[in-house]
Amino acid sequence: MMEAIRSNLRGRRDRASLLLWIVALAAATAPAAARDCDKRKLARAEMQYQIVVTDIEKGNFDGVFREMKRIYDLGFSPPCQRHLTEAVEKVSDMLRHKRQLELARKVVEEGLKYVEVKSLQARLYRELAYIYQKQGQLDKAKENFRRALKLDEQ
Q1: What sections of 30-135 are H helices per DSSP?
Q2: What predicted TM-score, i.e. pTM, was given to this entire model?
Q3: In the predicted model, what is the mean pLDDT of residues 40-45?
Q4: Rounded to whole angstroms, how far apart are CA atoms 81 and 103?
Q5: Distance of alpha carbon 147 from alpha carbon 112, whole angstroms
Q6: φ and ψ at residue 11, rounded to 5 degrees
Q7: Containing H/E element for 114?
Q8: Which residues are CB-neighbours of 128 under 8 A, at least 6 positions away?
Q9: How far apart are alpha carbons 132 and 128 in whole angstroms?
């Protein structure tokens, strides 16, 4: 399957082709539980995520949380929550680099409400710790790094 995708992409280097190749690669190499995720839901989440990215790139921060909420509201089962966690991490990182720290914190804290898998919660607490570090709230950063460590050990 992957060889067919590669041969189809030879000579093509546009963004859409590359994105399709990445999605196909992820689907082909993902664990069975991840492949069982609702493909329609994942596709909707990807489109919604791209709306968030566009808003951030345009500096339209007012719509980011509302658009992220639409992703959260899709309701991911535990085997599929990795996708949600990755989206939250990426959005938070983009917001941190744009110095939208309060919005990044709000996005991560809301994301935590929708993630049940302990190792994924650990990743989001780590992300929250980075935000607090950037804000100079070092005690809160330390507290969230400790939460992440504790969850990661479970």
Answers
A1: 32-35, 39-58, 64-72, 81-97, 101-112, 118-135
A2: 0.75
A3: 94
A4: 21
A5: 12
A6: 90, -15
A7: none
A8: 105, 108, 109, 112, 144
A9: 6
